[in-house]
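We treat protein structure as text, and this decision shapes the records that our systems exchange. We quote a single record here, exactly as it is kept in our systems:
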Amino acid sequence: MTIEEIANYIVSDGKGILAADESNPTCGKRFDSIGVESTEENRRDYREMLFRSEGMKGNIGGVILFDETIRQVASDGTLLRDLISSQGALPGIKVDKGLQQIENCPGETVTVGLDGLSERLKEYAEMGAKFTKWRAVINIGEGIPTDKCINANMDALAQYAKCAQDNGMVPIVEPEVLMDGNHSIEDCYDATDRSLNALFEHLEKHGVNLKGTLLKPNMVTSGSNCPTQAGIDEVAKKTIDVLTKNVPQELPGIAFLSGGQSDVLATAHLDAMNKIGGFSWKLSFSYGRALQAAALKAWGGKPENVFISQDELSHRAEMNKLASLGQWEEDLEDR
Protein backbone atom coordinates (compact mmCIF):
# COMPACT_ATOMS: atom_id res chain seq x y z
CA MET A 1 0.00 0.00 0.00
CA THR A 2 1.17 3.54 -0.75
CA ILE A 3 1.01 6.14 2.01
CA GLU A 4 -1.96 7.71 0.21
CA GLU A 5 -3.80 4.37 0.22
CA ILE A 6 -2.96 3.77 3.91
CA ALA A 7 -4.21 7.23 4.96
CA ASN A 8 -7.45 6.78 3.03
CA TYR A 9 -8.02 3.25 4.35
CA ILE A 10 -7.75 4.27 8.02
CA VAL A 11 -10.67 6.72 7.72
CA SER A 12 -12.69 4.90 5.02
CA ASP A 13 -16.40 4.05 5.44
CA GLY A 14 -16.74 5.79 8.81
CA LYS A 15 -13.78 3.97 10.38
CA GLY A 16 -11.58 5.68 12.95
CA ILE A 17 -8.58 5.10 15.18
CA LEU A 18 -8.25 3.45 18.57
CA ALA A 19 -5.54 5.36 20.46
CA ALA A 20 -3.95 2.72 22.70
CA ASP A 21 -0.56 4.42 22.94
CA GLU A 22 -0.70 5.49 26.60
CA SER A 23 2.77 5.59 28.14
CA ASN A 24 3.35 3.23 31.08
CA PRO A 25 2.89 6.04 33.67
CA THR A 26 -0.40 7.10 32.02
CA CYS A 27 -1.56 3.51 31.80
CA GLY A 28 -0.64 3.21 35.49
CA LYS A 29 -3.00 6.07 36.37
CA ARG A 30 -5.84 4.42 34.41
CA PHE A 31 -5.19 1.10 36.19
CA ASP A 32 -5.05 2.85 39.60
CA SER A 33 -8.63 4.01 38.99
CA ILE A 34 -9.79 0.36 38.88
CA GLY A 35 -7.36 -1.00 41.50
CA VAL A 36 -5.19 -2.99 39.08
CA GLU A 37 -1.38 -3.08 39.29
CA SER A 38 0.30 -1.74 36.14
CA THR A 39 2.58 -4.65 35.27
CA GLU A 40 3.71 -5.50 31.74
CA GLU A 41 1.53 -8.61 31.82
CA ASN A 42 -1.58 -6.72 32.96
CA ARG A 43 -1.05 -4.05 30.31
CA ARG A 44 -0.68 -6.80 27.71
CA ASP A 45 -3.84 -8.60 28.90
CA TYR A 46 -5.86 -5.38 28.85
CA ARG A 47 -4.81 -4.38 25.34
CA GLU A 48 -5.15 -7.90 23.99
CA MET A 49 -8.72 -7.89 25.31
CA LEU A 50 -9.45 -4.62 23.48
CA PHE A 51 -7.87 -5.79 20.22
CA ARG A 52 -9.90 -9.04 20.26
CA SER A 53 -13.21 -7.16 20.64
CA GLU A 54 -15.75 -7.99 17.96
CA GLY A 55 -16.46 -4.30 17.39
CA MET A 56 -12.94 -3.67 16.10
CA LYS A 57 -13.98 -5.16 12.75
CA GLY A 58 -15.44 -2.58 10.38
CA ASN A 59 -15.28 0.27 12.90
CA ILE A 60 -11.55 0.68 13.61
CA GLY A 61 -9.16 1.38 10.72
CA GLY A 62 -5.99 1.87 12.77
CA VAL A 63 -4.62 1.36 16.28
CA ILE A 64 -1.89 3.61 17.71
CA LEU A 65 0.51 1.61 19.87
CA PHE A 66 3.17 2.38 22.47
CA ASP A 67 6.69 0.97 21.99
CA GLU A 68 6.12 -1.78 24.58
CA THR A 69 2.86 -2.90 22.95
CA ILE A 70 4.09 -3.21 19.37
CA ARG A 71 6.64 -5.78 20.63
CA GLN A 72 4.24 -7.78 22.83
CA VAL A 73 2.85 -11.24 22.18
CA ALA A 74 -0.74 -12.26 22.99
CA SER A 75 -1.56 -15.13 25.34
CA ASP A 76 -1.77 -17.58 22.42
CA GLY A 77 1.59 -16.53 20.96
CA THR A 78 0.24 -14.13 18.31
CA LEU A 79 1.99 -10.77 18.07
CA LEU A 80 -0.43 -8.04 19.19
CA ARG A 81 0.28 -6.14 15.98
CA ASP A 82 -0.76 -9.21 13.95
CA LEU A 83 -3.91 -9.52 16.06
CA ILE A 84 -4.80 -5.93 15.07
CA SER A 85 -4.20 -6.71 11.38
CA SER A 86 -6.45 -9.78 11.61
CA GLN A 87 -9.29 -7.45 12.70
CA GLY A 88 -8.90 -5.38 9.53
CA ALA A 89 -7.11 -2.51 11.28
CA LEU A 90 -3.59 -1.21 10.62
CA PRO A 91 -0.99 -1.02 13.41
CA GLY A 92 0.59 2.38 14.06
CA ILE A 93 3.14 3.71 16.56
CA LYS A 94 3.60 6.80 18.72
CA VAL A 95 7.13 8.11 18.07
CA ASP A 96 7.56 11.38 19.98
CA LYS A 97 9.56 11.44 23.21
CA GLY A 98 7.38 13.75 25.27
CA LEU A 99 7.48 17.39 26.31
CA GLN A 100 10.29 19.77 27.21
CA GLN A 101 9.92 23.27 28.68
CA ILE A 102 10.67 26.10 26.25
CA GLU A 103 13.31 28.48 27.59
CA ASN A 104 11.89 31.88 28.60
CA CYS A 105 8.33 30.71 27.84
CA PRO A 106 6.66 29.90 31.19
CA GLY A 107 3.89 27.30 30.88
CA GLU A 108 4.87 26.31 27.35
CA THR A 109 6.48 23.13 26.01
CA VAL A 110 7.89 21.73 22.80
CA THR A 111 7.68 18.05 21.87
CA VAL A 112 11.04 16.32 21.45
CA GLY A 113 12.17 13.12 19.74
CA LEU A 114 13.66 14.12 16.38
CA ASP A 115 17.11 12.80 17.39
CA GLY A 116 17.48 9.26 16.08
CA LEU A 117 13.92 9.33 14.71
CA SER A 118 14.76 7.89 11.29
CA GLU A 119 16.48 4.84 12.83
CA ARG A 120 13.50 4.20 15.12
CA LEU A 121 11.09 4.56 12.22
CA LYS A 122 13.06 2.03 10.14
CA GLU A 123 12.70 -0.53 12.95
CA TYR A 124 8.97 0.13 13.34
CA ALA A 125 8.45 -0.16 9.57
CA GLU A 126 10.17 -3.56 9.65
CA MET A 127 7.76 -4.59 12.42
CA GLY A 128 4.82 -3.76 10.15
CA ALA A 129 3.78 -0.33 11.48
CA LYS A 130 1.90 1.50 8.72
CA PHE A 131 1.48 4.88 10.36
CA THR A 132 2.97 7.03 13.13
CA LYS A 133 1.85 9.70 15.58
CA TRP A 134 3.49 12.77 17.12
CA ARG A 135 1.67 15.02 19.62
CA ALA A 136 2.33 18.70 20.16
CA VAL A 137 0.76 20.42 23.17
CA ILE A 138 -0.49 24.02 23.13
CA ASN A 139 -1.66 25.59 26.41
CA ILE A 140 -4.02 28.56 26.66
CA GLY A 141 -3.39 31.07 29.43
CA GLU A 142 -2.33 34.64 30.19
CA GLY A 143 -0.32 35.73 27.13
CA ILE A 144 -0.03 32.18 25.76
CA PRO A 145 0.25 30.45 23.39
CA THR A 146 3.13 32.55 22.06
CA ASP A 147 4.17 32.51 18.42
CA LYS A 148 7.51 31.06 19.55
CA CYS A 149 5.79 28.04 21.10
CA ILE A 150 3.45 27.48 18.16
CA ASN A 151 6.24 27.71 15.58
CA ALA A 152 8.63 25.45 17.50
CA ASN A 153 5.96 22.75 17.82
CA MET A 154 4.63 22.99 14.26
CA ASP A 155 8.15 22.91 12.79
CA ALA A 156 8.94 19.76 14.80
CA LEU A 157 5.64 18.19 13.64
CA ALA A 158 6.55 18.93 10.01
CA GLN A 159 10.09 17.53 10.36
CA TYR A 160 8.67 14.36 11.94
CA ALA A 161 6.01 14.04 9.20
CA LYS A 162 8.61 14.25 6.42
CA CYS A 163 10.79 11.67 8.18
CA ALA A 164 7.82 9.28 8.57
CA GLN A 165 6.95 9.56 4.89
CA ASP A 166 10.59 9.05 3.88
CA ASN A 167 10.35 5.75 5.78
CA GLY A 168 7.13 4.71 4.01
CA MET A 169 4.69 5.46 6.83
CA VAL A 170 1.74 7.82 7.16
CA PRO A 171 2.30 10.58 9.74
CA ILE A 172 -0.55 11.60 12.02
CA VAL A 173 0.13 15.20 13.06
CA GLU A 174 -1.47 16.10 16.39
CA PRO A 175 -1.43 19.78 17.38
CA GLU A 176 -3.48 19.56 20.59
CA VAL A 177 -4.79 22.79 22.08
CA LEU A 178 -5.54 21.63 25.62
CA MET A 179 -9.01 21.99 27.16
CA ASP A 180 -7.44 22.63 30.60
CA GLY A 181 -8.28 26.08 31.91
CA ASN A 182 -11.13 28.54 32.26
CA HIS A 183 -10.77 30.06 28.78
CA SER A 184 -13.71 30.69 26.46
CA ILE A 185 -14.53 28.87 23.23
CA GLU A 186 -13.34 32.02 21.40
CA ASP A 187 -9.91 31.69 23.06
CA CYS A 188 -9.78 28.05 21.94
CA TYR A 189 -10.79 29.04 18.40
CA ASP A 190 -8.01 31.63 18.23
CA ALA A 191 -5.28 29.27 19.52
CA THR A 192 -6.48 26.47 17.20
CA ASP A 193 -6.61 28.84 14.22
CA ARG A 194 -3.04 30.06 14.83
CA SER A 195 -1.74 26.52 15.39
CA LEU A 196 -3.33 25.02 12.26
CA ASN A 197 -2.24 27.97 10.13
CA ALA A 198 1.38 27.52 11.26
CA LEU A 199 1.22 23.73 10.93
CA PHE A 200 0.27 23.72 7.25
CA GLU A 201 2.85 26.44 6.50
CA HIS A 202 5.57 24.24 8.03
CA LEU A 203 4.29 21.05 6.35
CA GLU A 204 4.51 22.81 2.98
CA LYS A 205 7.96 24.19 3.76
CA HIS A 206 9.28 20.70 4.57
CA GLY A 207 7.73 19.13 1.46
CA VAL A 208 5.26 16.85 3.26
CA ASN A 209 2.79 15.02 0.99
CA LEU A 210 -0.62 15.98 2.42
CA LYS A 211 -2.39 13.18 0.53
CA GLY A 212 -0.43 10.73 2.70
CA THR A 213 -0.98 12.57 6.00
CA LEU A 214 -3.74 12.56 8.65
CA LEU A 215 -4.55 15.39 11.08
CA LYS A 216 -5.48 14.70 14.72
CA PRO A 217 -6.70 18.03 16.13
CA ASN A 218 -8.69 19.12 19.14
CA MET A 219 -12.27 20.25 18.72
CA VAL A 220 -12.98 23.92 19.41
CA THR A 221 -14.54 23.82 22.88
CA SER A 222 -14.82 25.94 26.02
CA GLY A 223 -12.06 25.41 28.59
CA SER A 224 -12.86 22.59 31.01
CA ASN A 225 -13.21 25.11 33.89
CA CYS A 226 -15.02 27.81 31.90
CA PRO A 227 -18.26 28.72 33.72
CA THR A 228 -20.14 28.91 30.39
CA GLN A 229 -19.83 25.72 28.34
CA ALA A 230 -20.58 25.98 24.63
CA GLY A 231 -23.31 23.65 23.35
CA ILE A 232 -22.88 20.82 20.86
CA ASP A 233 -23.98 22.86 17.83
CA GLU A 234 -21.64 25.77 18.61
CA VAL A 235 -18.68 23.42 19.08
CA ALA A 236 -19.50 21.71 15.76
CA LYS A 237 -19.87 24.96 13.81
CA LYS A 238 -16.76 26.63 15.23
CA THR A 239 -14.65 23.50 14.72
CA ILE A 240 -15.73 23.11 11.09
CA ASP A 241 -15.13 26.83 10.53
CA VAL A 242 -11.54 26.75 11.80
CA LEU A 243 -10.78 23.58 9.83
CA THR A 244 -12.29 24.93 6.59
CA LYS A 245 -10.20 28.08 7.03
CA ASN A 246 -6.89 26.26 7.48
CA VAL A 247 -6.90 22.65 6.22
CA PRO A 248 -6.17 22.04 2.51
CA GLN A 249 -8.72 19.92 0.66
CA GLU A 250 -6.22 17.26 -0.44
CA LEU A 251 -5.76 16.04 3.15
CA PRO A 252 -7.71 12.74 3.20
CA GLY A 253 -8.88 12.72 6.79
CA ILE A 254 -9.18 14.48 10.12
CA ALA A 255 -9.44 12.18 13.15
CA PHE A 256 -10.26 14.16 16.29
CA LEU A 257 -8.80 13.57 19.73
CA SER A 258 -11.35 13.49 22.54
CA GLY A 259 -9.22 15.64 24.87
CA GLY A 260 -10.98 14.84 28.13
CA GLN A 261 -14.57 14.96 26.83
CA SER A 262 -16.94 12.28 28.08
CA ASP A 263 -17.34 9.37 25.67
CA VAL A 264 -20.91 10.23 24.61
CA LEU A 265 -20.17 13.96 24.25
CA ALA A 266 -17.18 13.24 21.99
CA THR A 267 -19.47 11.10 19.83
CA ALA A 268 -22.22 13.76 19.80
CA HIS A 269 -19.79 16.51 18.70
CA LEU A 270 -18.40 14.36 15.87
CA ASP A 271 -21.89 13.44 14.69
CA ALA A 272 -23.05 17.07 14.72
CA MET A 273 -20.14 18.06 12.47
CA ASN A 274 -20.84 15.29 9.98
CA LYS A 275 -24.55 16.19 9.93
CA ILE A 276 -23.56 19.76 8.94
CA GLY A 277 -21.22 18.41 6.20
CA GLY A 278 -19.93 20.45 3.28
CA PHE A 279 -16.21 19.54 3.55
CA SER A 280 -13.93 17.42 1.39
CA TRP A 281 -12.04 15.45 4.05
CA LYS A 282 -13.35 12.53 6.11
CA LEU A 283 -14.15 13.68 9.68
CA SER A 284 -13.47 10.78 12.01
CA PHE A 285 -12.16 9.90 15.48
CA SER A 286 -8.87 8.97 17.12
CA TYR A 287 -10.06 8.46 20.68
CA GLY A 288 -8.26 6.97 23.65
CA ARG A 289 -10.24 7.50 26.83
CA ALA A 290 -13.52 8.13 24.95
CA LEU A 291 -13.29 4.62 23.45
CA GLN A 292 -11.75 2.84 26.43
CA ALA A 293 -13.24 4.35 29.61
CA ALA A 294 -16.35 2.15 29.83
CA ALA A 295 -14.38 -0.95 28.81
CA LEU A 296 -11.69 -0.32 31.44
CA LYS A 297 -14.28 0.14 34.20
CA ALA A 298 -16.22 -2.99 33.16
CA TRP A 299 -13.03 -5.08 33.07
CA GLY A 300 -11.69 -4.16 36.52
CA GLY A 301 -8.78 -6.56 35.97
CA LYS A 302 -11.02 -9.64 36.27
CA PRO A 303 -10.87 -12.36 33.57
CA GLU A 304 -14.57 -13.13 34.02
CA ASN A 305 -15.42 -9.57 32.89
CA VAL A 306 -13.58 -9.77 29.55
CA PHE A 307 -16.70 -10.23 27.41
CA ILE A 308 -18.59 -7.40 29.15
CA SER A 309 -15.60 -5.12 28.66
CA GLN A 310 -15.27 -6.07 25.00
CA ASP A 311 -18.96 -5.35 24.52
CA GLU A 312 -18.44 -1.84 25.92
CA LEU A 313 -15.55 -1.14 23.53
CA SER A 314 -17.51 -2.59 20.60
CA HIS A 315 -20.49 -0.37 21.40
CA ARG A 316 -18.39 2.80 21.54
CA ALA A 317 -16.56 1.89 18.32
CA GLU A 318 -19.88 1.36 16.57
CA MET A 319 -21.36 4.61 17.93
CA ASN A 320 -18.33 6.58 16.70
CA LYS A 321 -18.50 4.96 13.27
CA LEU A 322 -22.11 6.11 13.03
CA ALA A 323 -21.03 9.60 14.16
CA SER A 324 -18.34 9.63 11.44
CA LEU A 325 -21.13 9.02 8.93
CA GLY A 326 -23.49 11.55 10.53
CA GLN A 327 -25.89 8.73 11.44
CA TRP A 328 -25.67 8.66 15.25
CA GLU A 329 -28.70 9.38 17.44
CA GLU A 330 -28.64 9.72 21.22
CA ASP A 331 -31.30 7.02 21.75
CA LEU A 332 -28.86 4.45 20.28
CA GLU A 333 -26.95 4.78 23.58
CA ASP A 334 -29.85 3.17 25.50
CA ARG A 335 -29.00 -0.52 25.76
The chain is about 45% helix and 15% strand. The CA atoms of residues 51 and 83 lie 7 Å apart.
